[in-house]
Design brief:
- Helices cover about 50% and strands about 5% of the residues.
- The protein is mainly alpha-helical.
- A two-stranded antiparallel ribbon has the order 1-2.
Length: about 140
């Protein structure tokens, strides 16, 4: 499984908000500069994160973005799934990419491998909270 720039940049943006937004909302332009992300791309990412209630916006001259929940309530999995979708390592589950049931599913031995890898990925990202990253917890 490979995380795209959406996932990587989105995670960086949320971490930036968590670090710099404790006392006041963080502007998109500040995040863009600090994280070297284009404003237009950052706007797309933040829109998805806002819709998923990971970040919240504040309007006005002192407006910007802050976390919608505490650092220990937002998991890396929440962020990545919002931006990447399903985190499955392969697309060969019970249904093919066309939405048609996989013909080989009943006799496929390797699906156990992909399920275990997927379960491990989900467990890792769901149990890794923003607070762990920011507090430098030894994982």
């Amino acid at each position: 499984m490979k995380i795209s720039t959406k996932g990587r940049y989105g995670l960086r943006a949320v971490i930036d908000i968590a670090i710099h937004g404790e006392n006041e909302p963080v502007s998109l332009s500040d995040i863009a500069i600090r994280q070297d992300i284009s404003m237009s791309y950052l706007e797309q990412l933040i829109a998805k994160l806002r819709k998923a209630h990971i970040v919240t916006s504040v309007r006005g001259a002192k407006g910007g973005y802050s976390l919608a929940a505490s650092r220990d309530k937002i998991s890396v999995g929440d962020i990545l799934r919002t931006l990447e979708g399903d985190l499955a390592p392969v697309n060969c589950s019970e249904v093919t990419e066309n939405g048609v049931p996989c013909k080989e599913s009943d006799q496929c031995i390797t699906k156990i491998v992909w399920k275990r890898i997927g379960d491990s990925i989900n467990h890792a990202v769901d149990n890794l909270m923003l607070s762990d990253l920011l507090d430098g917890t030894d994982l």
